[in-house]
Amino acid sequence: MTQSDNFEVAAGNAKPEIASFEDQEKGLVARFHHALHTTPALVPLIVLLAAVVVFGLILGSKFFSPFAMTLILQQVQIVGIVAAAQSLVILTAGIDLSVGAIAVISSVVMGQFTFRYGVPPVVSIACGLAFGTAIGALNGWLIARMKLPPFIVTLGMWQIVLAANFLYSANETIRSQDIAKQAPLLQLLGAKFKVGGAVFTLGVVLMIVLVLTLAYVLKHTAWGRHVYAVGDDPEAAELSGVNVKKVLISVYALAGLICAFAGWALIGRIGSVSPTSGQLLNIESITAVVIGGISLFGGRGSILGTMFGALIVGVFTLGLRLSGADAQWTFLLIGALIIAAVAVDQWIRKVAS
Amino acid sequence: MKRLLTSSTLALAAMVGTASADDISACLITKTDTNPFFVKMREGAEAKAAELGITLSSYAGKVDGDHETQVAAIETCIANGANGILLTASDTSSIVPAVQQARDAGLVVIALDTPLEPINAADMTFATDNFLAGELIGQWAAAALGDDAANAKIAMLDLGVSQPTVGVLRDQGFLQGFGIDLGDPNKWGDETDPRIVGNDVTAGNEEGGRKAMENLLAKDPSINVVYTINEPAAAGAYEALKSFGRENEVLIVSVDGGCPGVADVKDGVIGATSQQYPLLMASKGIEAIAAWAKDGVKPQATDGKDFFDTGVALVTDHPVDGVSSVDTAKGADLCWG
Question: Which of A42, A108, B221, B293 is the most exposed place for a label (fewest CB within 10 A)?
Answer without folding.
Answer: B221
